[in-house]
Amino acid sequence: MIRPLSMTSYGCGDSASGPKSWTAEIRSVNHRFLDVKVKIPRKYSGLEERIKKEIATQFSRGHVDVTITPGSESVDSMRLVVNMPLARDYHQCLESISRELGLADRPSLAMIKDFREVITANEVEEDLDAIWPSIREALANALNNGLVMREQEGAALKKDLADRLQNFAATVAEIEKTVPDLVRMKEEKLKERLDKLLAGLDIDPMRLVQEVAILTDKSDITEELVRLKSHIDQFAHFLDSDEPIGRRLDFLLQEFLREINTFASKINNASMAHQSVDLKNEVEKLREQIQNLE
């Protein structure tokens, strides 16, 4: 099993190792949790929980539809039963009608056999433990065929996510380079504004410098960028891990947005606003892709 795996797949498998053949079809799409729906003839419904456990060996989440279909019924699977008391009652009723009406016709087998429930077909009860290995074989074949599709799509998603993450990281690096200039511009603007507001007032220069430094420090986004780069590294690490990663990546993207919104609000700059929008758009594209990852 090569991860990451897509939650979207289709697999079909057969088995014929028992007294009858079986076909299993598995269709899966993305879902927040593991949701398995099983369609199987009613007389085999006792196997539904076993089927769900088999699905859980390869799926940790996703909506999975499983259809189990038996092959041609064997001749021993049905039994014809004659209800002799009911047949006698029908015969007696027909005899009575014939006598009362003076009819020449006498009751015949052809008449009686067509009455309801004189002859019924009953299914032979089957040993679920005996047929389970055959159904399990069909399930295993369907799961393996579906796994090929999940691995192929997972590999394609991984490549796309890695490429998008690289572009995202490049934009973050560009922002990081501009931080010193942005902070310096912010400081100069603050000084100019305070000079205009405090013109003619006797203010301690040192106190003024301290206030400007405090206001400028509040505009520094170094901490946010450090955390964002750490999240990017974690994202890349999870892409190479051998376990389900969809939920973890989704959580990291929430943290991506948190840091982007924080530093975008700290620095009110047209260039920064444009780059922040680009980063948010890229996060949404990443989120769309990971919705299909297990």
Structure description:
This protein has 294 residues and is an alpha+beta fold. The protein folds into three domains: 9-72 and 128-151, Ribosomal Protein S5, domain 2, CATH 3.30.230; 75-123, no CATH class; 153-290, no CATH class. Helices cover 59% and strands 14% of the residues. The chain has eight helices and six strands; from the N terminus they run E-E-E-H-E-E-H-H-E-H-H-H-H-H. The chain has helices at residues 48-56, 84-101, 109-112, 128-197, 205-217, 222-239, 246-266, 270-290; strands spanning 9-15, 22-29, 34-39, 62-70, 78-82, 119-123. It has a four-stranded mixed sheet. Strand 3, helix 1 (48-56) and strand 4 form a beta-alpha-beta unit. Helix 4 (128-197) runs antiparallel to helix 6 (222-239) and helix 4 packs antiparallel against helix 8 (270-290). The longest helix has 70 residues, at 128-197. It is elongated, with a radius of gyration of 37 Å.
Brief summary of the model shown:
This protein is an alpha+beta fold and 294 residues long.
What labels describe this entry?
single chain, 294 residues, alpha+beta, Ribosomal Protein S5, domain 2, 8 helices, elongated
Describe the secondary-structure layout.
Elements: E1 9-15, E2 22-29, E3 34-39, H1 48-56, E4 62-70, E5 78-82, H2 84-101, H3 109-112, E6 119-123, H4 128-197, H5 205-217, H6 222-239, H7 246-266, H8 270-290
Parallel strand pairs: 3-4
Antiparallel strand pairs: 1-2, 2-4, 5-6
Helix pairs in contact: 4-5, 4-6, 4-8, 6-7, 7-8
